[in-house]
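Run: sequence + thymidine-5'-diphosphate -> complex structure.
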Amino acid sequence: MKQGKFITLEGIDGAGKSTQLAWIAELLQRAGLQTVLTREPGGTAFGEKLRDLLLDGSFIVYPETEALLMFAARREHLGRVILPALAQGQWVISDRFTDASFAYQGGGRGLDSGELSILEQWVQGTLQPDLTLYFDVPVGVGRQRVSQGGSMDRFEQEQADFFQRVRAAYLDRARQFPERIKLIDSSQSLAEVRAAVERTLQCVLNYG
Ligand code: TYD
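>> structure
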């Protein structure tokens, strides 16, 4: 059976990627593909428990603890959800994956990217997404959208300079992996963002 494709969505908090998730699934389903929508941290029952801990603003934890738990949740997610679905020919769309660890724990918290690469290699070997849509917005725009959304989690409570570092790390990765990571300007209107997403996905559908 033909292996499915693995698509990940990334961006700082408030970049609007979650809004695009349902639309992306619809586009792929219209193309006759079977899709699995999932997210990180999370995606399994155990991973969702880790997510609750990681997003709980009442804890202060070391950056290393945060990174290890992100990759622990990812190990479960890969083994129990992502890899089996791909093997069955399904297309997996994950709201965040390993680029978020490089952006948040690397850029935001200042962990060494070489050390994160060791965890990446340990947990996922050579597996990488086939396509990553990185929704880019200026930090001010993201902050404003998040603050309109009600209560804020442990990451959302961070200051603007944290998100400047996260965004810079995402932009660095987009430059480092231009074949895989496609930048979508998410400060445009919803219709323009949708059109950009559709153009990018069409390329994968046509040539994938
Ligand atoms: P998010 O997609 O923002 O959830 P929601 O849209 O429900 O707020 O993801 C939760 C947070 O987890 C987000 O602030 C980024 C953070 N995160 C990391 O710091 N490292 C990681 O490796 C991942 C996957 C997420």
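>> summary
The CA atoms of residues 9 and 133 lie 5 Å apart. The chain has a mean pLDDT of 95.
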